[in-house]
Amino acid sequence: MTKTVAIIGATGLQGGSVLNSLYDTGKYKIRALTRNPKGESAKLLLMKYPGIEVAAADLDDTESLRKAFKDIDIVFGVTQFFQKQIMDKIETGNVDAEYNQGKNMVDAAIAAGVKDMVYSSLDSMKQNSNGKYSKVLHFEGKNRIQEYLASKIDQIRGYFVYLGFYMENYVDFARISPEDNKTVEFAFPLDPDTKLPLADTAKDTGAVVAYVLDHPEECLGTVVEVSGGYYEAQDMVKAFTEVTGKPARYVQIPYEYLPSEELKEMFHGLQEFGLFNGRTEFIARNGKINHTFTTPTEFWKNRGWTGPVSSKQ
Ligand SMILES: NC(=O)c1ccc[n+]([C@@H]2O[C@H](COP(=O)([O-])OP(=O)(O)OC[C@H]3O[C@@H](n4cnc5c(N)ncnc54)[C@H](OP(=O)(O)O)[C@@H]3O)[C@@H](O)[C@H]2O)c1
């Protein structure tokens, strides 16, 4: 019988990728979830993917989740830490804001009789750093959601994908050099040769989730990383120039320039312990996944982006 998948975050990067890949398999009925099913993003999904259903769900509203998960076999779940809905709560001292959303999602899925859930989690930086970096809330919250879901194994099967460092981050961290008003600068605090497991989130996530669903026994309760492999932090910058012909440079900014303690600790943790705590086994598994992982060069080719617009133009 065709299984029905509900996708949290279907209008976003990770969930959008999952929707795209699972739709392409032709094996699933799909319910794309959004807080705003009448919004433009939802309308676009309905046009792009004929036959899918779009429904309302808010991770802060358990009743909406229960309705959204009715008659669903599988849930893909992602929690977006970096948004006002969470930040406002964090600012008032509610450091569990992301965890609570994840717990709502797990509880509602169990109540609705969902059998399998793939959750986009991350390592605990606190554990990986032996307590040195304990304030990376968007790692800790996800890891606690993972623990909670795993603890419910008698009621729901939990699978965990961990996203690599988004290639898309390079677009967000780019600026035109104030010195020559021409060179594209990519500014991060990491040493330029820091090894990062990179992911083209929009393309790679869905392929890995499809693999997880096709290999439940292999993947149950384990971590499945989403990344084509390790690259130096500066490789995306070299690839940018190679593809666009535009001058670009990697700029190593001081940690102090980062806007929050959260991000400072995250980048310190990435520098010292790595995003995947040094794990490399996923690279061999990638060979079994029916997907060509995006390289930095291909990312820029596919994107067709030639840098931010200069503020002086
Ligand atoms: N940047 C990186 O390198 C990196 C690496 C690993 C992990 N991550 C993690 O990735 C996560 C973000 O994932 P993304 O990139 O896919 O985010 P995104 O593109 O911003 O999309 C967020 C999605 O979540 C949905 N959403 C947000 N709040 C919701 C709520 N309360 N209830 C229901 N749906 C909600 C949104 O749907 P609607 O707006 O339509 O409701 C949207 O589809 C972050 O938590 C981050 O920590 C990032």
UniProtKB/TrEMBL annotation:
Cross-referenced InterPro entries, in alphabetical order?
NAD(P)-bd_dom_sf (IPR036291), NmrA-like (IPR008030), NmrA-like_oxidored (IPR051164)
Q: Where is the signal peptide?
A: none
**Entry keyword Oxidoreductase:** yes
Gene Ontology terms, MF aspect: oxidoreductase activity
Keywords in alphabetical order? NADP, Oxidoreductase
Q: Offer a single GO CC term for the protein.
A: nucleus
Query: Which parts of the sequence belong to the NmrA-like domain?
Result: 1-289
Top-rank taxon of the source lineage equals Eukaryota
Per the record, the similarity remark reads: Belongs to the NmrA-type oxidoreductase family.
Name this protein carries in UniProt = NmrA-like domain-containing protein
Tell me which species this is from: Coemansia asiatica
Q: What is the lineage of its organism?
A: Eukaryota, Fungi, Fungi incertae sedis, Zoopagomycota, Kickxellomycotina
